[in-house]
């Protein structure tokens, strides 16, 4: 059973940085595509960045391009999201996801973490 667990969330001042981690277990390395999503209270969850597990090819949404960086540490079986220049208007709940779908970004994701909160103060 594939399981994902996020960590690294917390409070940060506007303009500051945080690095989120997503550690996989139960065969996570078999996933072809991994992604980070974020969600504001009362709003739908939006995909912001993806990475191919084999080639490392990445995708970024316009909302985070130039500020966020997705990466993987294969030895630690961990996905990272480096977030710079954080803004109070950035949605607060960050979740990681994975799928074995052949394309990335994928149309759906089978495995999800429970999410971690990021609060940006002005």
Give structural attributes.
122 residues, mainly beta, seven-stranded mixed sheet, four-stranded antiparallel sheet, 11 strands, 0% helix, globular
Tell me what the structure shows.
The protein is mainly beta and 122 residues long. 0% of the residues lie in helices and 50% in strands. The chain is built from no helices and 11 strands. The protein has strands at 3-7, 10-13, 18-25, 33-39, 46-52, 58-60, 68-73, 78-83, 93-99, 111-112, 116-121. The strands form 2 sheets. Strands 2, 4, 5, 6, 9, 10 and 11 form a 7-stranded mixed sheet that branches. The chain has a 4-stranded antiparallel sheet with strand order 1-3-8-7, with no helix packed on it. The chain is globular and about 40 Å long.
What's a concise summary of this model?
The chain is an all-beta fold and 122 residues long.
Topology of helices and strands:
Elements: E1 3-7, E2 10-13, E3 18-25, E4 33-39, E5 46-52, E6 58-60, E7 68-73, E8 78-83, E9 93-99, E10 111-112, E11 116-121
Parallel strand pairs: 2-11
Antiparallel strand pairs: 1-3, 3-8, 4-5, 4-9, 5-6, 7-8, 9-10, 9-11
């Amino acid at each position: 059973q594939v399981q994902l667990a996020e960590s690294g969330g917390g409070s940060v001042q506007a303009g500051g940085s945080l690095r989120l981690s997503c550690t996989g277990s139960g065969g996570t390395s078999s996933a072809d595509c991994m992604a980070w999503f974020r969600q504001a209270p009362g709003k739908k969850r939006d995909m912001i960045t993806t990475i191919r597990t084999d080639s490392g090819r990445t995708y970024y949404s316009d909302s985070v391009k130039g500020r966020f960086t997705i990466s993987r540490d294969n030895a630690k079986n961990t996905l990272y999201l480096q977030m710079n220049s954080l803004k109070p208007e950035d949605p607060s709940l960050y979740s990681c996801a994975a799928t074995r779908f052949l394309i990335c970004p994928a149309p759906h994701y089978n495995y999800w973490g429970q999410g971690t909160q990021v609060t940006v103060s002005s």
